[in-house]
Specification:
By secondary structure, the chain is of the alpha/beta class. The protein has two domains: 161 residues, 3-Layer(aba) Sandwich (Rossmann fold), CATH 3.40.50.1000; 67 residues, DNA polymerase, domain 1, CATH 1.10.150. 51% of the residues lie in helices and 13% in strands. It has a six-stranded parallel beta sheet, sandwiched between helices. The chain has a two-stranded antiparallel sheet with strand order 2-3. It holds the Pfam family Hydrolase.
Length: 237
C-alpha cells in the first residue's frame, strides 16, 4: 500500500516560463514586429497583421518553427529568429519582465515538498538565459530547458521527456506534472504521458482552448498549482 501511494506522487514538475511563471507584457509581439520589419514586412500591412496573428495562435511553440512556417525559406527563418531573439533580449534587458504573482512562492513550496522543478521555454537558450538573469532565477530551479536542449520544441513532448531523463527524479512519466499557458504546453504534457497537465489563465490561451488541447486542470495561475498537485495526490490514494 505504501509503494502504491508513493507512485502517485508528482515529484517532477515541468513549468513553462513566459505567460506561466514570467509576465512579459506582450514582448513576444513587440519583438516579432522588429524581426518582421527587418525582413521587409511592412508594419500596418495586411501581411504583417496576418503574420502577427499566426504568432499569437502559435504561442508556446518553438520560435524557429514558427518562423519557418511564416517565411518558408530556412535562411529567412534563421534571420528572423536571430532578429527576434536580439529584440526580445533588448526588451528583457530593459527591465520589461517580472515574475508572475505567486510564481516564486509556488516554486519554493514545490521544492520544499521535495519535488524537482524544471523550467522550459519555446525561446532559444540565449533568450532563456537573458530572462533567468533579469529575474535572478539561475539558481531557482533544478534544470532549465529550451527546444535545442531536448530535440524538438512544443507541441512535441521532447522537453518534458528530457526533464524526466536528465533529472531522474521519478520512476515513470505518470509522476510528472506539467503546467503552461498555451495549447502547445498542454499537447506536450499529454504526449509525454504526464499524470497532471495544468493550464493557467495568465497567458496566451483561454480555458476552452487549454481543455481542448488536453488540460486535466485549468487554474487561475501557477500560484494554485501546489494545491492542485496536493489534491491530485490525495485523490490518487
Amino acid at each position: 500500500m505504501v509503494s502504491h501511494m508513493t507512485n502517485q506522487h508528482l515529484d517532477l514538475v515541468v513549468l513553462d516560463m513566459a505567460g506561466t511563471t514570467v509576465a512579459d507584457g506582450g514582448l513576444v509581439e513587440q519583438a516579432f514586429g522588429k524581426a518582421a520589419e527587418r525582413l521587409g514586412v511592412e508594419p500596418g500591412s495586411a501581411d504583417h497583421a496576418e503574420k502577427l496573428q499566426y504568432v499569437r495562435d502559435t504561442m508556446g511553440e518553438s520560435k524557429i518553427t514558427v518562423f519557418r512556417a511564416l517565411f518558408g525559406d530556412e535562411e529567412k527563418a534563421q534571420l528572423a529568429n536571430v532578429s527576434f531573439e536580439q529584440a526580445y533580449g533588448e526588451l528583457v534587458d530593459g527591465g520589461r519582465i517580472a515574475p508572475l504573482p505567486g510564481a516564486e512562492e509556488a516554486i519554493g513550496r514545490l521544492k520544499s515538498e521535495g519535488r524537482t522543478v524544471v523550467l522550459t521555454t519555446g525561446f532559444a537558450r540565449t533568450t532563456q538565459d537573458a530572462i533567468l538573469t533579469a529575474l535572478g532565477w539561475h539558481d531557482l530551479v533544478d534544470l532549465t530547458l529550451c527546444p535545442a536542449d531536448a530535440g524538438r520544441g512544443r507541441p512535441y513532448p521532447d522537453m518534458v521527456l528530457a526533464a524526466f531523463l536528465r533529472t531522474g527524479a521519478v520512476d515513470g512519466v505518470h509522476r510528472i506534472a506539467v503546467a503552461g499557458d498555451t495549447a502547445y504546453d498542454m499537447l506536450s504534457g499529454v504526449r509525454s504521458g504526464a499524470g497532471l497537465v495544468a493550464g493557467v489563465l495568465t497567458g496566451a490561451h483561454d480555458e476552452p482552448t487549454l481543455k481542448d488541447a488536453g488540460a486535466t486542470h485549468v487554474l487561475p495561475s501557477v500560484a494554485q498549482l501546489p494545491d492542485a498537485i496536493a489534491a491530485f495526490e490525495a485523490m490518487a490514494r
